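Dear Dr. K.,

Following up on our conversation at the group meeting, I've run the structure prediction for Glycosyl hydrolase family 39 from Tunturiibacter psychrotolerans. I'm pasting the input sequence below exactly as I used it, so you can double-check it against your construct before we proceed with anything downstream. Let me know if the numbering doesn't match what you have in your notebook.
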Amino acid sequence: MIRTRALLLAALSLSLFSSTPLHAQTTAQVRIDAHAETTPFPHFWEQTFGSGRAILSLRQSYRDDLRTVKNVTDLRAVRFHGIFLDEVGLYDPDATTQNPGLPPEKVQGAGIYNFSYIDQIYDGLLANGVRPFVELSFMPRKMAADPNQTQSFFYKPVVSPPKDYALWDAMIVAFAQHLIDRYGIDEVATWNFEVWNEPNLDFWGGRPNMPTYYELYDHTALALKKVNQRIRVGGPSTAQAGYVADFLQHCKEHTIPVDFASTHVYANDTAKDVFHTDEQIPRDAMVYRAVKKVHDEIAASPYPKMPLIFSEYNASYSNEPDVTDTTFMGPWLANNIRQCDGLTESMSYWTFSDVFEEQGVVRTPFYGGFGLLAADSIPKPSLNAFAMLHRLGDRRIKLDNDDALATKSSDGAVEVALWNYAPPFGIGAAYTPPPANKGPDKTFQVTFTGVPSKATVEVFRVDDDHGNSVKAFDAMGRPRESLTQDQIKTLRAAGAMAPAEKLRLSDGHLQITVPAHGLALLVVK
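The predicted structure tokens came back this morning:
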């Protein structure tokens, strides 16, 4: 999500540079033995996605985009903020029956909890084959110690601690019990319950922030387990890969239940914030290094086998149109998957859709939003990148390349992702027209053994000329006003996945050229 701390332009521009030198060779040799030993390759990057806050899930556009992403990925769960926001209507100690025609002596208390919208929110996810990843946030205004302590997002969530933890505990118990009563413990036990969001930033008003967050976590975890021990609870849901070791040590020392550790990182987070160093970590290395750091912290903790979930990640925490809207995301995502494989249970991409209002109502479809689909359900290149990488198999073949990933499927097919990473061409939130040449093309000489020497190959691509709705938007002059229906149709068609090319190996060899910011996927039958 957007960080609310001030952004230093110098730090941001430094983060745009890649660890891959721009003068790198433009050719690469890739050798793939289909009979080589493989390792398990669970699709950890596509099982959970973030989204706009809870109430937005009731919109048709949200559910349309959810189905689109579900159709092309292994989407199993969605995480969002704000299930306890007043707009969802769960908590109101002053509630009465909604019948103003009754005399005062006939008005009966309606109960302080109202699950009407919560039921519609979770029913809508489950009806589409998607489970909630339950982030327990934010504070109901009438429960807050300071109802005026809000965060700066458009919808102004209250981030205060509760005025009385007995009220919070009772709400958590009622919430969990209602979910079990409605959906059954066998279903609810498969959900993750994450306590709060980024308490080390301004999403938590307790001071000092982490010790008071631990108090919130303790109350919440104990209340959930009081309802049923099978409920899966975790935290600390921190920004910048922070405090996981400290959190686990706290749980151990105070005998507090914890079933998973969660945290967040973005590729333009700074080394100072994540590692407390002065180094300059490029955008194509930050996520991996943060994941590795937390993985190693857990291994050295009292819970060395604790599941690790990165419940938010992306290439940028700020609205950078040259990053999250563009073909840059294909190589960045593929490289991130290559690096992080085996280090985490899952990584939740923030977000699946630009049905999203943290900075206000969306004014233009391409503003650097986090989603895979822009407003009006226009596919971005990132959606096509996820769709392509979904085709990777479930066994990984070891390669010595930093720009390739090879897998096998149970049907014997071999899949190879190839990419040409280059830094984003702009700086910060201002859009920069793409240059004529983002960098040199890269030609891959791919050699296969263990497959028929003249096997057919399907080639899927996402690059400037394939599956790129932004190119069509640029051709329209980047209109700032509402799009016409014809413009929307044009952009949706431009953003659709390009048909696969049909090629054939020549004596086990294939040559393929990938432009800068391009991703290609080979499927050898």
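Two things stood out to me. The chain has a mean pLDDT of 92. Residues 165-183 form the longest helix (19 residues).

Best regards,
J.T.
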